[in-house]
Design brief:
Blueprint: H1 2-7, H2 10-39, E1 47-53, E2 59-73, H3 74-79, E3 90-97, H4 101-104, E4 108-112, E5 116-120, E6 125-130, E7 135-145, E8 148-152, H5 156-201, H6 207-239, E9 242-246, E10 252-256, E11 260-264, H7 271-287, E12 290-291, E13 296-297, H8 300-331, H9 336-348, H10 353-376, H11 391-415, H12 419-427, H13 432-461, H14 466-469, H15 496-505, H16 510-545, H17 547-550
Antiparallel strand pairs: 1-2, 1-5, 2-3, 3-4, 6-7, 6-11, 7-8, 7-9, 9-10, 12-13
Length: 551
């Protein structure tokens, strides 16, 4: 009976179904973990005040967020040097995010639950998000304007929030002047410097050109001085305003409003207030630049760089992959050489991605980029333009990496088109090129889109080759801006995958960076899903369009 059952093939069907089910469960579990940890990062956590007895028997106050818990068996705790009572089975500890790193030297600390004498969540505790040194926890006692106290006690918090809104508006204006206006002036001054050097190299530098460039340079310098004056006036508005916060140790800290991003009281928030805070934090995460070594703030440059690089890669890989597949299937003589090429293409799909990165660095960056600099940008020497890793070389490298996937998918799509359709087109008087362009390729377009979907899915998550050919920890400017030629292919860029690697493994503050790793991972999954869904919708539209013709 068992042998006959095996001969029917049903055991293998059930085995395959079980394997697929296990894989789906694992995928859903991982995505669920990332979604829960990543989405909860923006929720305002309760700030708890602990009355804690240390090893010396002194009672201390600790303020912070309860981040994690740890349970250590008694035997392991004793071997680690902890004193355990005979009736204790385990050592339970809380990980508390205490913040105030500039005061205490650390953001987190472990406390033993058995030493906690009291814990409560007073509504008056505040969380202050800063541009540097992380969060600050304590009680806001006073607000100062030009060094003079203007509010204290219960009135301090609402007055501080009002003053902060005004300070943030000023800081936004400062950021616009520094990045947009002064950035554009610096770009034009550098362009004029390179133009002067180019004219000198071509022996075309004379009194007339010198006068023309001098007038333009003077005009830009005047603009620069004007913007600098505006910046000094704006900084003066917010530098003298500050808040006084009392720490858990009883000390008072004076924090300038120019260094604060947000002030809120999570313990006093209702559900609606928490939802508003959650949405604002999520928008900030999507739209702001990173700060504090990428462990805080937003990740907009990484989102922008990832999408732009994937789009450029798609524009490059699709025509080359389709042309190669069309030649192999429609024009090349089917023989030993063609079979050898197909084997090579399939083997390229299994080459480790870091190998493509090394090739891209050596060939695209140093050889191609170096020669482009010598031919077209001699005035920039010794500083490289295209002879250094950048967006263009990263896109081409990933296009090369994903090229085999597009070739194989397109070939399979061309092979599925019935021979009778080609013969019918030729019988009606169409040339082979017209048949290919007007009949065969449109019908094979769903297969091309399938290859592009697979290419996008792989390219968006690649990190190793990008580390060599263009991605950086922090890019000062985006590859796309308002300065001619608008799209700067030579610039380095940020990437979500590398951002996750950098924050998760290179951060000096691992505990503080961990929630951001989950949030960024969730966003990367969403970006990849969005790109894939867009391609899938286009593929399904094309499939429905040519279904009748295939029938």
């Amino acid at each position: 009976m068992i042998k006959e059952w095996f001969k029917t093939g049903l055991p293998w069907v059930w085995l395959n179904a079980a394997a697929v089910s296990v894989c789906l469960i694992m995928i859903v579990s991982v995505l669920g973990l990332i979604a829960v940890r990543g989405a909860s990062h923006f929720w305002p956590a309760e700030v708890i005040q602990f009355k804690y007895q240390d090893d010396d028997g002194q009672l201390k106050t600790i303020i912070g967020e309860h981040v994690d818990s740890s349970v250590t068996p008694a035997a392991m705790a004793k071997s680690a040097g902890y004193k355990m009572a005979d009736d204790e089975d385990a050592l339970v500890q809380y990980l508390i995010k205490t913040g105030n790193r500039d005061v205490t030297g650390a953001d987190f600390r472990w406390i033993q639950v058995r030493n906690i004498k009291q814990q409560e969540a007073p509504a008056g505790l505040v969380v202050i998000e800063r541009r540097e040194w992380g969060n600050f926890y304590g009680q806001l006692t006073a607000v100062k304007e030009n060094g003079n106290v203007i509010a204290s006690g219960e009135e301090a918090v609402p007055i501080a929030m009002q003053k902060l809104d005004a300070a943030l508006a000023v800081f936004k204006e400062i950021n616009h002047i520094e990045k947009k206006e002064i950035g554009a002036v610096n770009y034009e001054l550098e362009r004029l410097r390179l133009k002067q050097k180019s004219l000198q190299l071509k022996n075309r530098w004379n009194a007339e050109t010198e006068k023309t460039l001098a007038v333009e340079t003077a005009a830009y310098n005047e603009q620069y001085k004007s913007y600098q004056s505006q910046l000094q006036a704006l900084y003066q508005k917010i530098r003298l305003d500050s808040v006084v916060v009392k720490t858990d140790g009883g000390n008072e800290a004076d924090i300038s409003l120019s260094k604060i991003v947000k002030i809120y009281q999570p313990n006093g928030m209702g559900l609606f207030d928490k939802l508003v805070h959650y949405v604002n934090k999520f928008i900030e995460f999507l739209s702001d630049d990173p700060r504090e070594a990428n462990t805080e703030g937003g990740i907009f440059p990484a989102i922008f760089g990832t999408i732009m690089m994937v789009m450029m890669m798609s524009v490059i890989v699709t025509p080359f992959g389709v042309v190669a597949a069309v030649y192999l299937r429609e024009y090349a003589k089917q023989g030993f050489i063609t079979r050898l090429i197909r084997i090579a293409v399939n083997n390229l799909a299994g080459v480790p991605s870091i190998v493509y990165g090394v090739f891209g660095l050596g060939f695209f960056v140093y050889i191609l980029g170096g020669n482009i600099d010598q031919l077209f940008f001699p005035e920039s020497a010794p500083a490289p333009v295209f002879g250094t890793p950048g967006l263009l070389w990263a896109s081409i490298t990933l296009a090369l990496l994903t090229l085999p996937v597009v070739i194989v998918s397109t070939e399979e799509g061309l092979a599925r088109i019935p021979k009778s359709i080609r013969e019918g087109s030729l019988a009606l008087g169409a040339t082979k090129m017209e048949t290919l362009w007007l009949t065969v390729l449109p019908m094979a377009s769903p297969a091309m889109m399938t290859g592009l979907i697979l290419a996008v899915a792989r390219a968006a998550g690649e990190v190793a080759p990008l580390m060599l050919v263009g991605v950086v920890k922090m890019a000062p400017t985006l590859p796309l801006d308002g300065n001619f030629p608008f799209l700067h292919l030579d610039r380095k860029f940020m990437h979500l995958g590398f951002h996750i690697y950098d924050v998760g493994f290179q951060s000096p503050n691992v505990e503080a960076a961990r929630p951001l790793v989950y949030a960024t991972s969730l966003l990367l999954v969403v970006v990849i899903l969005g790109l894939n869904l867009s391609a899938i919708l286009i593929r399904n539209h094309l499939r429905e369009k040519y279904r009748a013709l295939e029938g």
